[in-house]
Design a protein that fits this description.
This protein has 9 helices and 17 strands. With about 400 residues, the protein is α+β, with helices and mostly antiparallel strands.
Length: about 400
Amino acid sequence: MRTYPIPFNEEARLRSVFAVPGLTEANSGVFDAICDATRKILDCPIAHISVVEGETQWYKSVVGIALDRMSKNNSFCTHTIMSGKPMVVPDLSKDPRFETHPMVAEGGPGARFYAGVPLVLSSGHRFGSLCVLDLVPHEAPSDHQMSILTDLGKAVVAALEGVPPTPVDLTKDEGAKSTFITLIGHELRTPLTILFGSLRLLEAMADRGVNAGLISSARKSTEHLMGLVEAIITYSDASTGELSLNEQDCELDDILNGVAQLVLPGANGELKSIALDENAHTASIYIDPHHIKLALHALALNAINHGGSEITIGSRLDSARNLELSITDTGTLDDNIDLAALYEPFVVGGHIRTRDTRGGLGLGLPLTRKLVELHGGEFEVQATDKGTAAIVRLPAWRVGRLRIV
């Protein structure tokens, strides 16, 4: 399983990276000088300027060790570019994200300390990091040290781009972003608040039975959507198309039960419910709950609208203790369907024997895949002997332990 997260705006990020004329593997003395200063400031033997591409990471400059282009599975900087803040890990062997990392685990070079700052282009996209490594743990660097490291990172970008953006350009970008978020926030919050209040009143007055169940499902879905809207407004960047995670410790059984409580009509009007697998694995997990709930709700609604009559949500740990979340149904896919096409935006995916393709599989699957990859996980749809399974896999470090500082 892949061990690294993928930015939500990865396609745009890569286009921005490849457009920088100075971002070639040819080195110059200025970058070596910056790396040398960096390792002295943080008292480390190794420093480098990394460039994170689609599947690999390479180095504009390295001092203190010889490094070749490597898989992103072996990269720490792939995690650093996931936010605009520095990433500091005093002891990599005690961080659940990295304790089994090839550079950290027994048999590898024994990396222990890492500190890096993301390198941000004038487009707002992050392409790599300026960082240090040591083979022994360190205390966390001081704010003053990290401030100098941040300034050196800006010097790297300025040297690559030639002329840095002017303050006026940055002001324009921030203004446009602020206006976008304000307008979208108002347009989404107002109708959702009215809808949520109305559904709460209906739920309080409804008798038991089908209507009460439908109103309850609608109220819970609206409540979830309100939370999602707030999360997107807070953790998105309209100028770069980026979405960040608001990670926290959650109970898996709460998330599974929330999806299992949905009762909604399918495409033919028949009411469908979702059963919770009685053998489902439960644990504390470290995720962005809004985004994982959105992914699971999208898969559940797809199964309700287009799947078979029996729908189940479950969870299990695989042999490597990665977490698998699954939504299965008894519908079948056409033998000729290209499952890879299901991941493309706005593509239904071909003829589906027992599913009404109006509305299709559409945008839900690409969005689910991006949210899962943002968590460092994987997503796939499988055709099985018993029906169809949509599977979300999350890395083992997200399961069962409280958490990263």
